[in-house]
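Request: Have a read of the protein record below and say how the chain folds.
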Amino acid sequence: MATVQHEPFRFPDRIGAEFFKTYGVARPQATHWRKATCQEVGCKNFANGWRIFIDLSTDLGQRQGRYIRDHSGRKYTVVGQANSNVMLEFPAGQKCFAEHRIPLDREPICYIRGGDHRGNPTKTPARKLRADQWVEDFSEHQGNIKEAKERG
């Protein structure tokens, strides 16, 4: 007999998705985050320096190598090379290659929509609420579930 695997924290689908409500909180990057410098986020690469390996036998590796050499403006030292693989070391105190972001001081977007992970068969649009309204609705919903369970 085969065992059915369910996603973590999800109950088996015994009733339709139309009987569910999904509560969500979102902080979209476009509206709730901004780009940040290495210093602002305490970047370890900025503080300590870092090493990268590039495989120059691939198109990607060749593009990376050209970018680092010709356009990045970063200082580095070749610390190892074997065949087409090269290891570069970047000293501390310069911007790393990651794009760092930090949250803006904005309230998250709290919403409730019909359905569950399978979708929203009722096609009702998500409702956006203030955080206090969202918490109150969630609490009432949990109370209703508890009462229904106690009634059997």
Summary: The helical segments are 29-32, 38-41, 44-48, 59-70, 131-151. Residues 35-99 form one domain. The chain has a mean pLDDT of 89.
